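Suppose a colleague, Dr. K., hands you the sequence of a protein chain of 75 amino acids and asks what its three-dimensional shape might be. Before reaching for any lab equipment, you can write down a predicted structure in token form. Begin with the sequence itself:
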Amino acid sequence: MARISEQLLAFEEDRTWIEENLEELLGKYPEQWIAVKNGQVIASAPDFESLLSIVPDPAHTCIEFITKEPLEMVL
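The predicted structure, expressed as tokens, is then:
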């Protein structure tokens, strides 16, 4: 159980890092998917499938789409 907690905490830290660095990321990776691990972009690609094919451990990596457009969520 401790391992899962550590993984969730690391994921949340990477998600927060993306939020805090969004402007810089928008300049480097506009309209792209990025993979972040330990506060570093480890891969980027214009489409999700391409990104998944190059990320070594996508299940344990924070993956986000970087865009200036507000994202709409349908619940």
